[in-house]
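pinned: reference chain
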Amino acid sequence: MTAAVAPDVIAAMPRKLAFLRKPARYKVAYGGRGGGKSWAFARQLLIRGVQEPIRVLCTRELQVSIADSVHKLLSDQIAALGLGGWYAIQQQTIRGRNGSEFIFSGLRSNVTKIKSMEGVDVVWVEEAETVSEESWRILIPTIRKKGSEIWVSFNPREESDPTYRRFVVNPPPDAVVVKIGWQDNPWFPAELRREKEYDYSVDPDAAAHVWGGECRSQSDAQVLKGKVVVESFDPRPEWSGPYYGADWGFAKDPTTLVRAYVDEETRTLYVDAEAYGVGVDIDATPALFDGVPGARDHAMRADSARPETISYMKRNGYPRIVGVEKWQGSVEDGIAFLRSFARIVVHPRCRHVAEEARLYSYRVDRLTGDVLPIVEDAHNHTMDALRYALQPLIRRAGGGWGRFLSKRAAGAEAGVKEAAGA
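pinned: its structure tokens
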């Protein structure tokens, strides 16, 4: 049998991430969006998998399906590096001609599988900001092969998060920990640059969290404090929806579309798809919205302040889009409705929804520090789209999910009595 001949691969990456090429038990890169952490990790692991046969576990806290993993990112980098003849991309794994193997698994839901894994050379923990302390305690002793490494990439949330405390506040021995941001990425794309400049123009403090990689503490001013979690999920047939809502960009503001579902039994709101673009021209908006599955086929509710945009969308493949009804206090009613859910679950792929849900805040008096009953006009574009998507439910609820359910139950009871001739 002819031995596999390894190709020569040259791959550029941000200079700050050159440490990935050197041995260390822990290799940690953290910071804001646009630093190139994920694609640099993918490239270096693929190159190493060419140079020597290695077994790589790619994991994160939750992984419902392979679509939630870095499988696609690795596949895209295989193509970019010209390694299509070396790696076989399979549905659940990626295999190299020399025996290298990339496997994918979530941490929380696969405890037994993780504990039983043998011969792992490298584990790559992506989006590690969500990894629990329990998951770390299970994972780290499992990666015990001689010379094995643990690679960690994440965008910080709070200083109290287990990942931040474990690797940034109190880094373990033999750890290389590097903070990297968009400034360190020579290939920072124009699309992200527009988003960054917009965020810094409306809220520099929040932009320092999103783009600068600074931790952000929980605040009483957060509109959805304690409600939002970021988790992978698949929509279920018993859920109501999908509900589609759109918010239009003005000048450099973002144009957004979200898709949501409602689980009435658990009083949970789920958001599983988004479209987001800064400075999107009206003729490019249909293509932007096509990134959300089913958008052309379902009813869609949008900001009624732009009737000309709604008319354009109707003429260009979105016949079921309508402007939302607005009334005095409609924003406040919408916020009350969102807060009345027991949980709001955002899929990890909805990065902008997750960010805005955390940053969406009431105004704070500069002199007294009092939280005012006025919502800041920032970080509200996907939140407005979400309100628009749910507008018929909000109008009927009159201030809360519980009241909506009681009204619906009363209507159903009245319908039964009418059918019975009562």
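why pinned: The first strand starts at residue 26 and ends at 30. The radius of gyration is 24 Å.
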